[in-house]
Amino acid sequence: MQDVMERTLAPRPEHVPAELVRDFDLYDIPGAAEDIQAAYRAIQQASPDIFWTPHNGGHWVATRGEDIVEMQRDYNRFSHQHIVLPPMPDAPRQIPLEMDPPEHARYRRPLMQALLPSIVSELESKVRQVAIDAVERLLPRGECEFVEDFAKVLPIHVFLELVELPLDDKAYLLALAEDSVRGRDAETRGRSQQLMGAYLLPWIRARREMPGNDLLSKLVNVDIGGERISEAEATSYATLVLFGGLDTVAGMIAFIARFLAQNPEQRRQLVERLDDDAFVKNAIEEMVRRHGLANTARVIASDFDYKGVSFRAGDRILPANLFVGVDDRINPDPLVVDFSREKPVHAAFGNGAHACPGAVLARREIRIFLQEWLSRIPDFRIKPGTRPVLATGMVNGVLRLELVWP
Questions:
Q1: CA torsion sign, 103 to 106 to 111 to 115?
Q2: Structural domains counted in the chain
């Protein structure tokens, strides 16, 4: 049964003017079945820069890039202490994402050190070989369901190797990740986190007893002030990182594949210039800009006015990062993908203290996907009679994408 907050609309608080109320539900956005980011763009164009919605417990929404970037950076006023909508009051804190500095930095450090550019470079040959094997396996078939057959193969294989967990467990873990980030009700999302914690617990205990050099060992043995974090904290930390590693890169790769399948001109540009590193790098930033996917809410830490809007301590706000990429005040013609755009501006990996520590690895995986797929399958399109299946939520995604090629 769905959470009460999700089945009913929250009453408008006294400090929220009636003219700032809009009907916005991030799990049910008009037009999202065709193009999630364009649907967000339509909301951005039709709404005040900041509005309030009664859905999902009642919360503010910031729609413009300038405000969103400021909110992502200003953790003193826009706290990370609860990032999920609707609120999950009984859920354990997601470490380190639901922490603010300086506490946050101590937990984040081992994750940053494990994903440094130099370490990601060492992984590149393995990532590339996984991509090559996957494409070579699909090539003779002339078709595939891209999400299951490739998008989830590449990043998940790499990530499970980083944490040294069995690749055979992939299907089970992916199903949990799907429920966690796009489950429509708090019960589904909470259950997925409990099941992931239960799955991880034996591995966590083993790595705490005999740590190795893998990423999981580093996460579950974090030292804070001379003491190792508790088993419960270690489970929360590992659960969050695993969900992030299993879902977000796969989602971005699938959005990009969908775009290239539907836009042969841009696809040919990439095919012709795959060896031009600067061009490919800019093209990746432009496609990431156009296809933002992750959402994290914030909690207003104290009473204050912001650009004429009165916030109160405890209010929740969604500064959805994909709004930055589709904001015409920052990126002219934002729905158009232009590989020659001089400086694609986006917040797909966040900003400030909570910027995504896996951004370097994500960009590397996207580049390898483009190089290895397009060099072997340069001409592909969406299978006639099918349509991509898209989903909105705390992390937007592509659930199904059927492709064919000659």
A1: positive
A2: 1
Q: Identify whether the C-beta of residue 345 lies closer than 8 Å to the C-beta of residue 324.
A: yes
State residue 184's pLDDT score: 64
pLDDT score for 1:
36
Judged by DSSP in three states, 150 sits in helix
Residue count of the chain: 406
Candidates 358, 153, 113, 145; CA nearest to 242 is 358
Q: Which tens digit of pLDDT belongs to each residue from 251-286?
A: 999 999 999 999 999 999 999 999 999 999 999 999
Which pLDDT value is given to residue 366? 95
pTM: 0.91
Predicted confidence at residue 3, as pLDDT, reads 46
Burial of 194 (0-12, 13-18, 19+ CB in 10 A): middle
Closest of 65, 51, 61, 59 to residue 21, by C-alpha: 51
Q: Are 120 and 364 contacting, i.e. CB atoms less than 8 angstroms apart?
A: yes
* Residue 96 lies in domain: 4-404
List of residues 6+ apart from 258 with CB closer than 8 A = 382, 388, 398, 401
Q: Residue 101 has what pLDDT?
A: 87
Cis link prior to 11 (omega < 30° from 0)? no
pLDDT of residue 4: 44
- The token pair at 158 is 């790499």
pLDDT < 70 positions in the chain: 1-7, 181-184
Going by C-alpha positions, the residue among 337, 368, 350, 380 that lies closest to residue 120 is 368
CATH of the domain at 103: 1.10.630.10
Looking at residue 152, what is its pLDDT? Answer: 86
Indicate the burial class of 21 (C-beta count within 10 angstroms; 0-12, 13-18, 19 or more). middle
SS3 track for 204-254: HHHHHHCCCCCHHHHHHCCEECCEECCHHHHHHHHHHHHHHHHHHHHHHHH
